[in-house]
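During the no-cost extension, the postdoctoral fellow (Dr. R.K.) reprocessed legacy sequence entries with the updated structure-token encoder. One reprocessed record is reproduced below for audit purposes.
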Amino acid sequence: MIHPKRTLLVLGGSTDQLFLIRTAQELALSVLCLDQDGESPGFAEAEESACVSTRDVPALIAFLEQRRAAGGTLAGVLTMGSDIPDVIAAVAAHFGLAGPSSECARLATDKFAMKQRFQECGVPIPWFAEVRSLAELRAHLAQRGRLVLKPVDRSGSRGVFVLDVKNAVKSEDGKSDPAELYQVSRGFSFSGRVQVEEYLEGPQISSEAILWDGRAVVPGFADRNYELAARFHPQVMENGGEVPSVFTGAERRALEQATVQAARALGIQRGSAKGDLVWTSEGPKVIEIAARLSGGDLCDSLVLFSSGVNYVRAAIRIALGEEPDWAELEPRVGHAQRHVANRYFFPEPGRLVALENADKVRAQPWVRKLKFNYRLGEMVPPTSSHAQRFGNFLVAATDREALARRIEWVYRTLRIVTRPESVAASA
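Re-encoded structure tokens follow.
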């Protein structure tokens, strides 16, 4: 059924897009949700839905043209937590909707081209180079000592590794062979291309900017948590974040300015930009910028619960071709001092045989979210990216110390039991 209200096309119907769907409906929009998974949770909430791959541009346009022939119109197109600005750009251009340019989308989906553009525009970034052979990788490693290896066209920590020529830091199983990691990283890349970057010492920050022509604000700003770095080494795996940030004053302004500078270097004039940055002894350095709304709790939970700001509303307005309501992007009274953190669950791989005390955790008034991606009896795979994480939780407190205690309590209380598949198969 085609609804008479203005319709926002949401690409993706997973849990990452649910907040976007609900926010659009709060703005009195009808939602058309497309996903290749017919059991996507977004299908149950959207006014319209259909099974179409969000990466298949010809199939998307064919479906939408058929819908248009039946009288269906679109007011905008958007996604959240899915790294497909190229698809958004193609659909927006075809139907005359607001969206990123094809050049912006190209830069945002090619991290090497992105870094080249940043370099041209004077954006502070680490040293970087594309790597076309194992010999090149070994040469860079010998010269620089420690590097980050990553695919040029993936997200969610897929294929991202820290390489250390001296093996000064090893994973628990000792896997740090550059030859093996080079092949694994290339295997994750859609194009088979990888690059290396200087490893930057310093705390990392997730930022998210809303831009409209010459005006920009950065309502999303969280300290990233890498407390499990030794466990996952050489793989780079974040374990959530925390707001408000420890960065304030001039340091925070410098990080926000770097985010906006990088976003504009990509050509994002009207839209949102998700930044990954590091605070170094030389000031802020930009790792990368995504031309989309973030997933992983930043905009739908962390910022919302801490400041009361739902900047997904601003992103939707921009997708409709409208200027954001800047007053909506100001922290709400009573929220500014609320400390909020999210963390992920990374149990041992195997068959999930028990999940204990979840109700006890949910019963705590300061637990704002508890979500699991696997059900009893299902296989929990090894964690090779954030796509495989078991679940997540979000807690709030009045100060950092109380927040840390509550995080520890959740980890201690919730019991996730898995059994190796070889054991389960013989049972």
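Residues 168-174, 423-427 have pLDDT under 50 and may be disordered. The longest helix spans residues 249-265. The remaining legacy entries will be reprocessed before the final report is submitted.
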